[in-house]
Design a protein that fits this description.
The chain is an alpha/beta fold. It has eight helices and nine strands. It starts with 25 loop residues before the first helix and ends with a helix.
Length: 240
């Protein structure tokens, strides 16, 4: 918002000031913010129903900055990265590796389902994709495969790394032998020349990256998220 010439007001824990932990009063909160001449609200919450109830207030645009099982702005950034780097999304083959029971993964899959010919290989370190998300994607033509090793990465166009929940979680998985991704020169040589490696998370002792390679798209992906969010705000507030 600042780069667009606007002003942002924020709080790291809005529940200190507004009743946003439950959906019962969040619509009232949105109406109060509208009365304070806010032009848009970005709401991040892991509590069920909060985002939908906030949007139902229908007073100012509400952007989902990450909810219990969805993260649409991250998905937009990921799709834009695939489009920009590979020249298109239709027909893409992607491996999703790591924590699968996470909003980043659900949001990406729902977005990929908008395109034809998409193939997804799931390589879980923990959890599984929400069955409703899988069903939705299958109905729209997405093909799913599951693997218990990294062998399928040799055939894909992109690898999406999704880190464990916390550092402690990562350490636990490592202790159990669940984390075995070492991204080094040997690993990179196994991949297609154009294969992207994406990661929506900050480094947190999750995946061992010990090589520099143009196919590592982490920072370009982060920059694309900035561009996408600026574009979204510009589109929503164009008449504000």
């Amino acid at each position: 918002m600042g780069l667009l010439g606007g002003q942002a007001y924020h709080t790291e824990d809005a529940s200190q000031f507004f009743p946003v932990r439950t959906p019962s009063h969040v619509d009232n909160t949105i109406r109060i913010l509208e009365s304070l001449h806010m032009d848009a609200v970005v709401l991040r919450s892991s509590d069920s129903g909060v985002i939908n109830r906030a949007a139902a207030a229908d007073t100012v645009p509400v952007i989902n900055g990450g909810s219990l099982d969805d993260h649409p702005t991250q998905a937009l950034a990921d799709i834009y990265t695939l489009q920009h780097e590979l020249g298109g999304v239709e027909g893409v083959e992607i491996a999703i590796c790591g924590r699968l029971e996470h909003r980043n993964v659900s949001a990406l899959l729902v977005a990929l389902a908008l395109y034809k010919g998409v193939k997804v290989t799931l390589i879980p370190f923990s959890g599984q994709v929400d069955p409703e998300v899988t069903s939705y994607c299958v109905d729209r033509g997405v093909e799913f495969f599951t693997a218990n090793s990294l062998d399928p990465v040799e055939e894909v166009d992109a690898i999406y790394l999704n880190a464990p929940k916390t550092v402690a979680h990562a350490q636990l998985l490592k202790a159990r032998g669940g984390l075995g991704v070492k991204i080094d020169r040997v690993f990179m040589e196994r991949l297609k020349p154009h294969c992207l490696i994406m990661d929506p998370m900050q480094r947190s002792d999750d995946f061992d990256v010990s090589v520099q390679d143009k196919r590592l798209a982490f920072y370009r992906q982060a920059q694309n998220a900035l561009f996408v969010k600026m574009a979204l705000l510009s589109d929503m507030l164009g008449s504000a």
